[in-house]
Amino acid sequence: MAIKKKTTIKDIANVLNISAAAVSKALHNDPRISEKTKKAVRQVAENLNYQPNHLASALRSGKSKLVGVIVPRTNSNFFSSAIHNIEEGLDKEGYNVIITQSNESFKKECKNIDTLLYLQVDGIIVSMANETVNLEYLEKVKAAGIPLITFDRGENDLNVDYIGIDDYNSSHLIVNHLVEQGCKRIAHIGGYKRTRIYNNRIRGYVDALKKHNLPLDEELLIETNLTIEDGREKMLELLKLKNRPDAIYAAGDFAALGALQILNEQNIKVPEEIALVGFGDEPFTAMVTPTITSVNQHAYKIGKIAAETFLEYSKKTNTKQSLNKIILEAELVIRDSSLKRK
Asked: Is 243 helix (H, G, I), strand (E, B) or coil?
């Protein structure tokens, strides 16, 4: 089967009997080309189904008007909301967004970066994968002179712009609330300490326990990938303890949902016997029974600020970056799973 040849500027030029340079100028709305010629070029381009070569254009102009976005996963309301607001902010300025996901894989994240660099993107906005510890690939972006914006998950050592919430203080909000409800043995199903945001949530949890003179039991501090399956598995382990917890603080709503499934299956009353708090304010937290208390991370604000931060760099000739952190205060959305009736 013959492969159809892609239409080029030369093909349009041949139809109109003008130079390829004149066609290129007409397609770029050059004022030196008459409106009559521009109209004719656009009409022939449409008839021949001409698709501009963005890569070649980027090499010529130094601007591709493309921005890459890398997220750990797209099946999260936080990330989908952040992406929506990034895209909305950049679209107003004529930028197209290429969305990729790492699936929490460092290897996939590296492949995404290579692809985006090959496409000559003007900037990359990233929330790092759980597995990412080596920052070498992200340093490649900086070395290429391309603005790198991190959100939700980033590392201070990168010395770039970061937008997120106060993860440390969020844990204090949660523990304070659970203590107010009379909880004294609070377990933390957390993420991995190697990831800065989860390390901050763990530190906040530990320090909040100290503040309330509650002992830290290592059996109650668990590191996971925070999936539904992790929540189910770790909840079962916690229920087998001789002295089981009276509250669960999960550092992600999917893990909280898994924990809730087990508690419901075991006929354990929530919150009367065990209170539960999640993190992320996913839509399902307001739909399950009981509804799940969670932390709102203000994804829409984070996405909006990430787009604005990139656009500021797009207007500069010098893209040298330094550590610039924009930290938003988190909001604890209290629902039935943690509100004990006194």
From this structure: coil
Report, as an integer, the average pLDDT of 107-120.
Answer: 94
- In one-letter notation, the amino acid at residue 119 is L
Beta-carbon count within 10 A of 26 CB: 26
Supply φ then ψ for residue 243, to 5 degrees: -115, 90
Q: What is the pLDDT of residue 54?
A: 61
Q: Using CB atoms within 10 A of its CB, is residue 111 exposed (0-12), middle (13-18) or buried (19+)?
A: middle
- Could you tell me which residues come within 8 angstroms of residue 57 by beta carbon, excluding any fewer than 6 positions away? 64
Q: What is the pLDDT of residues 245-297, one digit of tens each?
A: 999 999 999 999 999 999 999 999 999 999 999 999 999 999 999 999 999 99
Long-range residue pairs from 91-99, CB within 8 A, at least 24 positions apart, any chain: 93/311, 93/314, 94/65, 95/65, 95/66, 95/67, 95/122, 96/65, 96/66, 96/67, 97/66, 97/67, 97/68, 97/69, 98/66, 98/67, 98/68, 98/69, 99/69, 99/71, 99/74
What is d(CA 341, CA 338) in angstroms, rounded to the nearest whole number? 10
- pLDDT of 269 reads 96
Tell how far CA 185 is from the center of its chain. Answer: 32
- Reply yes or no on whether the pLDDT at 5 is more than 80: no
Vertex 248: Cα angle to 127 and 280 (nearest 5):
30
Strands 324-328 and 275-277: unpaired
Report residue 1's pLDDT band, with 50, 70 and 90 as the boundaries: very low
